[in-house]
Amino acid sequence: MSASKRRKVETEADSAGEVAAGGVIKLTETADNRAGLRPGLVRNKSKRRELHKQQQSQKKKDQRAGRNKRKKEREQAELAGHKVVAPVTRTLENTREFDETVVAPDDEEVAADQDTDELAAYFDGKPTKILVTTSNRPITDTYKFAETLVDILPNAEFFHRKGADLKKIIAGAVERDFSDIVVINEDKKKPTGLVVCHLPHGPTAHFKLTSIRYPKEIVNHGRKTSHHPEIILNNFHTRLGQQVGRMINALFPQNPEFQGRSVVTFHNQRDFIFFRYHRYVFKNAKKVGLQELGPRFTLKLRWLQKGTFDTKFGEYEWVHKRGEMDTSRTRFFL
User: Fold this and answer.
1) Which residues have a Cβ under 8 Å from the Cβ of 56 and sit 6 or more positions away?
2) Which pTM value belongs to this model?
3) What's the first-to-final CA gap in the chain, in angstroms?
4) How confident is the model at residue 40 (pLDDT cuts 50, 70, 90)?
């Protein structure tokens, strides 16, 4: 270690606490250890570990003292008759970057566009008819997920692709009056992607597929019935988010059969779309619970395309570019 660097370490050690015999640093109770000597500057492994342990312990003590102080202040204010406002916890969601595409609930322009888009007829009662297929030569896990999708999507049929070209499959599906086609992609012998193509004129969306858990893997899961479920969409705030939410929503009939007590939830959090399937369980006249039916999986939008599936000549409305877009933890697009 150079002389200048050694002097810097000694200076920081003096500011953080006392140096005892053997080089073990004893931190003072009042020292701000996060601004003190950095463990990375200590070359000895055992001393560096001891310093880190002491800093973490002091940090926890400071946090505990701060919580107790705030609690005591709130209790004194309540005893004095003052109104106590609980502090708002900072999260990535409530500190998200400003996005001019966020849609207000009463936006008339967006409502008019949705009344005339490609999906409007399905929200007016037109029945859905969905074709589910896979990538070429899939394995057992992909077939298993396809079977699960056919089970949860009303009026869905499975088509064994057998090497057929996807554009020919789309053309045949249009002739047979299918409303949507869902393609399950796989990578490294696991289903990893989902392409949802609305027929006959699009749009088409590609999602990354992760965190799949089948009903048998869920503790105390229930058994699905043939009733049409209710659909809940959470936190789709932007124009892009609402378009994606409508695409997903249009896969299900818009006339829920409430006697089935089933509900499908698509919850968007930090641009990850979580899928859950539950049933209401009435415990008594006042209490109600939820029983999960399964499956669970997570979607993340990769691109959105106008028209039907065409990766070569298709017009992309939105593409997720990781290097350019993922520059901030508080920047979200849905």
Assistant:
1) none
2) 0.76
3) 51
4) confident
